[in-house]
Amino acid sequence: MKLASSRDRAPGRPVSRQVLADHVYEELLAWLMDGRLEPGAAVSIDGTARELDVSPTPVREALARLEHTGMVRRVALKGYRVAPVFTREDFAELMEARLAIEPVNARLACSRMTPEGLADLRGAVKDLETAPRGPSFAEFRDYLEADERFHKLIAEQSGNQFMLSAYNALGGQVQRFRLFGGVGITDAEQAIAEHQAVFEALASGDPEQAAAAMEDHVQKVRARAIADAPAD
Question: Binning pLDDT at 50, 70 and 90, where does residue 19 land?
Fold first, then answer.
């Protein structure tokens, strides 16, 4: 993805700051996923801004968002560096947090689910089924987006602002997809079946079944992530 430079933009139609920040975020995420930015590498704000033909401001905003995911880290007086790939212990801790939050979100969402919410969840599962799963981030970007959208929709349908905040504060979910760079999504069939089971449990109207389906899904993702991750 090449950002439109100031020379390419139509006169009188400036690109908004938020649009630029979103584009820079997506570009940097692709570099991280595809290994162009390797663990430990410094990320120059000014250098990245020059390469993408933007000001430093959207680069700073994009890096702040990426820091929340754990993909980059800000080092005092040294700027940003690419974070190491999550270890098995990192994934174990992340999944412990997800197990504390997401089954509860599913239980609450089941009791408060709207027809529109169910339709949106069904759409996310369908998008997972049809999304490409190839080795480059450009090929599995839509799969990642559908996966994240499914879980976020459930958190939103919980109807509890604090549970939604807790889910949003997790970060780190994208780290699993970092392992797929160069190989593609290796567990798509299992993950799609698990998402479908969660959807069906939510559609059934049984909160305990919904919580159990979500717990089963996160437990299985935990096992796969730990198996795939580098040793501590």
Answer: confident
